[in-house]
Specification:
Helix content: 55-70%
Largest sheet: 7 strands, mixed
CATH architecture of the largest domain: 3-Layer(aba) Sandwich
CATH superfamily of the largest domain: P-loop containing nucleotide triphosphate hydrolases
Oligomer: single chain
Distance between the termini: 96 Å
Structural class: alpha/beta
Number of strands: 11
Strand content: 5-15%
CATH topology of the largest domain: Rossmann fold
Strand order of the largest sheet: 4-3-9-5-8-7-6
Length: 587
């Protein structure tokens, strides 16, 4: 083992030396003089970092592997990327091309976007190792922005320094600056969307400054989709694609799970399940959850919130989800219904503060809040044991505990919203609505309890949009300005409209509308010249119709509901009167 460790460290040090040799030839005189003095020292430093970081990134956990880790490449299924259906390695190779003139680089920054469970983090880990193997002469630096949430604000150079030192690798700030200036490094930022709302703008500005300050240093970012990335300079946005049937089958086959269950599920996939449930089995996380719930109940869920509900039931009832049978021990003594209420309250508390990783003090704060919110009592340590051991809903990761996947935290937070008193839920939804672009809490809450979300939040928002549409009449030009936020008096309304578009998955979405608006500006077409008959005008007309139709649908839905309730009350009152008359006649 010691010899293997030495060989691995030597290989990584040699790799670092070759990377330094590459940039040495193309660097300015000051940097060449620096490398002439410190090449051996720096190669050893970077080799040490690659070894230590690689040991952390080479093993993973997910909903199947919660109590133990598994090797990344035992379960990694390569993703494809849109547009142009590129492979993962093509994306990485393009980013790392050895073009030392920043003006000739195809892109300085690449943002990989995808929804929850699309495989972004697995791809980013693969990128860390692939960059070392392709002979690009670059050294990958891997950061998880969620760790920034517990640090004071700083620039990215400081965050890189912190990452080296946290691994026990000795490094100076000069070494980092020289590596960035010379293009020695590739910066990987996995999960920008996991930054707390209050510090997102700071780090997006830092990324923008970083791209300008270090044009030779490629940067690879992963995130859930957001319009915020469009403002980054020289940034290309690439979408992670859905799994093919072959990839989904490959993923299931790789998981450490009962063979008879895997074989039965793969047979279903090949027999038509992939086509009938494409929106679910083409996403790695949901495909894995479907295997889990299929093994427990044999049921194939048709709605997304049902996946998480069924997953909870499976995790609650099984002792080891890689085996069959065995009932779990419950440390807290809580019944399933009470435990679920407590988890939902714990999730909404931690989600509300943006705590995705929690130390002991965070756990205590959110547990105490959950007790108050739910009215359910138990011992904190027993609840945490049930969360991490009995149900595997959460994972211990060093000194931190986090949900086995962030989407589970969102589901339980949505569950809490769906059962919250009407007097409070509107304020909570309004608070959480600012995150709607990057998470699924409100979408899940709408699926769980449409009436709760629509009557306490959506109706007022849609009515305000519909009212503004009526005031401006049929002039599509005025609507265009309102829809894309170009009227200073209507900026808040434009934000509301975007939230509704996301919640109800309107087509066209804001990206399509902004693209049409920018194209018109580029061609010198004034907004007032856009007509309902032009292709761009028809796009905005469809958007306007979406809001009108939703407003009319909700008004009719709840007007009919109110009328039906009034009729029910009248019938009940009439029946009571009839009963009293009958009683009087009998007596």
């Amino acid at each position: 083992m010691a010899e293997e460790f030495i060989d691995r460290r030597r290989i990584l040090t040699d790799l670092s030396e070759k990377a330094i040799d590459r940039v040495f030839r193309a660097s300015e005189r000051v940097i060449r003089e620096y490398w002439a003095r410190y090449k051996n020292r720096d190669a050893a430093t970077y080799g040490d970092y690659l070894d230590r970081k690689g040991a952390l990134l080479s093993s993973v956990r997910n909903i199947i592997y919660t109590n133990k880790s598994t090797a990344l490449y035992d379960i990694y299924v390569p993703s494809r990327f849109l547009p142009n259906d590129r492979t993962a390695d093509q994306i990485i190779n393009m980013l790392c091309e050895n073009i030392d003139d920043p003006k000739k680089r195809p892109t300085h920054a690449l943002t990989i976007v995808g929804g929850a469970g699309a495989g972004k983090s697995f791809f980013m880990r693969h990128a860390f190792f692939h960059i070392q193997n392709i002979g690009s002469g670059r050294i990958p630096i891997f950061l998880e922005p969620r760790s920034f949430n517990r640090m004071i604000l700083a620039n990215l150079e400081t965050r890189i320094f912190d990452d080296f030192t946290s691994l026990g690798t000795s490094i100076t700030r000069e070494q980092i600056t020289v590596g960035l200036r010379s293009g020695l490094f590739v910066l990987l930022l996995d999960g920008i969307d996991e930054l707390k709302i209050g510090i997102q703008s700071h780090y997006l500005n830092e990324i923008s400054d970083f791209i300008k300050k270090f044009p030779l240093c490629p940067i690879l970012i992963s995130s859930r989709p957001s319009q915020k990335f469009h403002s980054l300079p020289t940034n290309e946005i690439v979408r992670i694609g859905r799994m093919t049937e072959i990839a989904a089958t490959d993923l299931i086959g790789r998981l450490e799970y009962a063979d008879n269950t895997k074989n039965a599920f793969i047979k279903l996939l090949r027999g038509g399940l992939y086509n009938t449930h494409y929106d679910y089995v083409s996403i790695p996380l949901l495909c894995t959850i479907m295997l889990l719930t299929f093994s427990d109940s044999g049921r194939i869920s048709s709605k997304r919130h049902e996946f998480y509900e069924d997953a909870f039931l499976a995790l609650w009832s099984k002792h080891d989800i890689r085996k069959e049978g065995f009932e779990r021990e419950k440390f807290s003594g809580l019944q399933k219904k009470d435990f679920l209420r407590l988890v939902a309250a714990f999730a909404v508390s931690s989600y509300g503060r943006g705590d995705y990783e929690m130390r002991d003090s965070d756990l205590r704060r959110h547990f105490e809040q959950a007790i108050s919110l739910s009215g359910i009592t138990c011992q904190e340590d027993e609840f945490i044991q049930d969360l991490t051991i009995s149900t595997c809903l959460a994972i211990e990761d060093g000194p931190y505990i986090r949900f086995c996947h962030r989407s589970f935290q969102e589901y339980f937070a949505a569950l809490f919203l769906s059962e919250t008193d009407d007097a409070m839920v509107g304020d909570l939804i309004e608070e959480f609505s600012d995150r709607i672009e990057m998470d699924n809490v409100l979408q899940l809450a709408l699926s769980l309890n449409p009436e709760k979300v629509e009557k306490n939040w959506v109706l007022n928002k849609v009515d305000s949009v519909a009212s503004s549409i009526r005031v401006m009449g049929d002039d599509i030009g005025n609507y265009v300005n309102m829809a894309v936020g170009q009227q200073s008096s209507n900026n808040e309304l434009a934000i509301v409209m975007q939230k509704i578009r996301i919640l109800y998955q309107f087509s066209p979405n804001l990206s399509a509308l902004l693209a049409a608006y920018d194209a018109a500006k580029h061609m010198g077409v004034r907004v007032g010249q856009i007509t309902n008959r032009s292709p761009r005008g028809r796009l905005f007309e469809k958007d306007r119709s979406n809001f009108r139709n939703l407003s009319a649908h909700l008004a009719k839905k709840y007007r009919n509901q109110s009328s039906a309730l009034q009729t029910l009350l009248r019938w009940s009152a009439e029946a009571s009167k009839e009963d009293r008359r009958n009683q009087e006649e009998i007596s």
